[in-house]
Amino acid sequence: MMKLALLATLIASAAAFAPAPAVKTTTTTALSVAAAENPLKNELGAQAPLGFFDPLGAVADGNKENFDRLRWVELKHGRVAMLAVVGYLVTYAGVRFPGAEDIPSGFAALDNLPDMVWAQMIATWTMMEAANQDQYKAPWGMNQNSLDESPAEFQGDFRNGAIDFNWDTLSDESKWRKRGVELNNGRAAQMGILALMVHEKMGNLGDILPGFLAHN
After folding, report:
1. Which whole-number Å values give the CA distances from 147 to 16, 67, 155, 162, in the listed order?
2. Are 45 and 155 in contact (CB under 8 A)?
3. What would the mean pLDDT of 94-117 be, rounded to a whole number?
4. Which among 35, 48, 43 has a CA at the least distance from the CA of 69?
5. What is the CA radius of gyration of the chain?
6. Is the pLDDT of residue 126 over 60?
7. Residue-level pLDDT at 50
8. SS (H, E, C) the chain
9. How many Å apart are CA 148 and CA 21, to the nearest integer?
């Protein structure tokens, strides 16, 4: 009787930790079906290896206008992050503008920047924000100018009829691929700058950066 009781206890304990494949399969299948039926499943950004990946259901309703807004937000954050990674690594390597040789890199720079440098930085950010937008809809999309209809092909296309880099000579396939490359590089940069900041705060940044980058 004692052995039977022990055996039953062991079986019950094992069953408590057993997976529930039916529930998991149903949930996974439901998500897969929802993704397959979403009209946005072939939009830019739905790329290998994840494909159309929307676990939070941000665009589950298939609203194209909302999707385009979110895509532009992601693209802009990616562009800023790419600049941030380059700037972080350049200053970490010791490169400085004349007169700024004594300013440290990383978070320590924030407490060592003169007030005039802060003013210059804010002015620079403002000018960059004003310049890097669709000038045919400027300022900031308010449509208060006399320019013609915007030639921009997508949100984030800021050529404004000036700098083109032969974009108009590319095929639609090449344009799609290049936009995907920029989007993926921006995604990687967002993770990269976050990792750099986290490891700096952890105090082990020197362990993950190349040895030739001398921390200043």
Report:
1. 69, 27, 18, 14
2. no
3. 90
4. 43
5. 26
6. yes
7. 80
8. CHHHHHHHHHHHHHHHCCCCHHHHHHHHHHHHHHHHHCCCCCCCCCECCCECCCCCCCCCCCCHHHHHHHHHHHHHHHHHHHHHHHHHHHHHCCCCCCCCCCCCCHHHHHHCCCHHHHHHHHHHHHHHHHHCCCCCCCCCCCCCCCCCCCCCCCCCCCCCCCCCCCHHHCCHHHHHHHHHHHHHHHHHHHHHHHHHHHHHHHCCHHHCCCCCCCCC
9. 59
What's the pTM?
0.76
Residue 31, token pair as written in the block:
């998500």
User: Does residue 215 register a pLDDT over 90?
Assistant: no
pLDDT of residue 180 exceeding 70, the answer is yes
pLDDT above 80 for 26: no
Q: Which pLDDT tens digit goes with each residue over 201-211?
A: 998 888 888 76
Nearest to 76 by CA among 120, 134, 27, 149: 134
